[in-house]
Amino acid sequence: MSKIMDAAEGIARRVFGDEALRTKAPGPDASFLGLRATAGYAKSPLQWMRYLRDTYGDVAETQVLGRPWFLVSHPDDIEWVLVKNAKKMKRDAYIDILERTLGKGLLTADGELWKRQRKLMSQAFTPKRIATYADAMTAVSDRGCHWHDGMTVDLHAEMSRVTMEVVSAVLFGTGIGAEEVRTVSEAMEVINGFYANSPEAIFKVPEWVPTPTNRSMNAAVKRIDGVLFDIIGKRRRSKEKHDDLLGTLLAAVDDDGSAMTDQQLRDEAITLFLAGHETTALTLGYTLMLVAKYPDVERRLMEELDTVLGGRLPTAEDSKNLPYTRQVLEEAMRLYPPAWTTGREVAEEIEVRGFTLPVGAQVLTSQWIVHRDPRFFPDPEAFDPDRFEKSKAKDRPKYAYFPFGGGPRVCIGNHFAMMEAILILAIAMQRYHFELLPDQELKLAPSVTLRPKKGVRAVVKHRRRKPAVVSAA
């Protein structure tokens, strides 16, 4: 009987094609090669994904420009895709556009190149190495977190400035000056704006098409390349050992003794600039915004900082002893995940909940959707850091919360980023209270990251520390 069924299936596939026979997931009408879905996604990806999940369930299927797209929204299914079937997945198709900036860095590489780069990069992100970066993080943040009393600032812009200075110091040590940091920072703003707002990025317009946006983007990449290749060249010629991230990458060797080329070092360095500073800046900006809205959270946060630090600068060891500070950051990343969606492309057919995901299909798993699911986070719109108290967090499915992605391609710098965020938040909050300007509407601009479209403005107030009690004895 099985032979008859196999023969019948073979005939049907030849007549109707594989697509007609596979078990499709529920979803909207995919007529006109998915142009309606494409327009919906381009207009408002967050609303579009929520509509798919709410209307069609945890596995929803549509078409975008003639290619099947799946939105997978249950933690168990996300783990099935990202972890248990990782070998049947490759990076998503949209990543191609990032190669304009990142080249073949860890975020954009795939296959054997990705495996090699991941192995080499991991030598710079061991727990021991990450701890050595803390002093530079603290010293730069100490200088960078200074504002005048009563000054109005854009929280995102200020955190972007501080984290850019931090990642520059950690990556290059004394090998990069203030003028070079400013050049890279200004160029990165152009690049971030390109990915956030331009049709050229959404529709992957070739870089040689001479639109004003393309020309501006190409010039920004050229300026960054000038800085990075100059630093790498000087470091190659120097006989000194440097205890910074670039020094670790220069010394990293594969099993066969080969090291990274200048181009690979450049690609990884710019990847760290884009992913390393942008995501941490967003986390800190949203955290300061939320803390300003929730006085009880701010009070508890300050009690912990006062108890553990007492006004002094934090260290790497302190970052392990500030559990509520960590919870505040984790809850901010739940509500406003800097990486708001994680994509994969199906390289080998798999099934999810009985639905067939064919080769070439794009699979989206959205932190924005899952992190706000009331099944896993009751009252999901509320800011409640107690959700991440250990006894509560252990009862949730693992992939109900995945701000750094998951599986083999999980963010290699996740522990680096968390330590950096804790140190900067501790320094800023010990010194200042932030009062949000009234009547601000937070509008989000989801692209590579989840940016605030118009920033978040606040008035800075100096904290008045209580004088120390001196014993009469």
Spell out the key features of this protein.
473 residues, alpha+beta, Cytochrome p450, 5-stranded mixed β-sheet, 3-stranded antiparallel β-sheet, 52% helix, globular, disordered C terminus
Extended strand count: 12
Number of domains: 1
Specify the number of helices. 20
Low-confidence stretches: 5-17, 467-473
How is the main sheet built? 5 strands, mixed
CATH architecture: Orthogonal Bundle
- Helix percentage: 40-55%
Task: Report the span from N to C terminus.
Answer: 96 Å
Radius of gyration: 24 Å
Class from helix and strand fractions? alpha+beta
- Name of the CATH superfamily: Cytochrome P450
Strand order, biggest sheet? 1-2-8-5-3
The average pLDDT score comes to 89
Instruction: Please state roughly what percent of the residues sit in beta strands, choosing from under 5%, 5-15%, 15-25%, 25-35%, 35-45% or over 45%.
Output: 5-15%
CATH topology, anyone? Cytochrome p450
What's the level 1 CATH class?
Answer: Mainly Alpha
